[in-house]
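Anyone have tokens for GNAT family acetyltransferase? Sequence:
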Amino acid sequence: MIRLCNSMDADAMVEIINDAAKAYQGVIPEDRYHEPYMPLEELNQEIRDGVVFWGFEENNRLWGVMGIQDKGDVALIRHAYVRTHQRGSGIGTKLLAHLAASTDKPILIGTWDSAEWAIKFYLKNGFTLVSSEEKKQLLTQYWNVPERQIETSVVLSDGNWKALVGDLIVTK
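Reply: yep, here.
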């Protein structure tokens, strides 16, 4: 069952995120990986910043979480994680479909360029990579990430975004 997460889920959410993020160790740039990957206070800050988390629950246990953040013109998919031993079971696909259906706005997703499994997952679910130029502009416009992360990330979009590309990108 997919349900809205609440403050009582925070410990389980951090556990899922940090478990799943171990896949990044040795894959993403060394200077961007740390343990825990997301401390509880960082999760709480993401929630204060407007990321709304949904979880996949079965037998009263969360198995995956995914956030969505309204950024005005677009919605961002944020922090998509499934417990390591549950990967490939369809939980991520169900969460992504649920979040995508919850908004009529174009959807953007940022992830590490070296996280090939994540990129393949989003491509399989109908998202496409944006160009390098668009990526930099979008990451600057809609995310609050350091330059180093911009250099080592990609952005994917749904089909709705392409129709609005001229309106969304701020030319510098």
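DSSP finds eight helices and seven strands in the chain.
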